[in-house]
Amino acid sequence: MGEKTEFEPGDKVPNDGVYMEVGEKSFHTEIQNPQQVTLERGDFFPETTNHNRKWKKKTKARVH
Question: Which InterPro entries does the entry mention (predicted)?
């Protein structure tokens, strides 16, 4: 088992970094101007702009 890479609003931030919104199925969904936030470990993820979106660390949020 690996570490969790996608997070829901209200989840606790595991590591410091910049997180951005991704589509529910980020491989197929490209979001125009996704929301980005800088968070520190222990903070909580804010609400996304759409209920189908999740948070992902920016370095891992690339679309293939």
Answer: YjzC
Going by C-beta distance under 8 Å and a sequence separation of 6 or more, which residues neighbour residue 64? 27
Tell me the C-alpha distance between 1 and 63, whole Å: 23
Given a contact cutoff of 8 angstroms between Cβ atoms, the answer to whether 41 and 13 are in contact is yes
Integer-rounded Cα Rg, in Å, for the chain is 11
pTM of the model: 0.79
Per-position DSSP letters for 31-46, written without gaps between them: -SS--EEEE-TT-B--
Residues 36 and 55: their CA atoms lie apart, in Å, by 9
pLDDT digit string, tens, across residues 16-57: 999 999 886 655 556 778 899 999 999 999 999 888 899 999
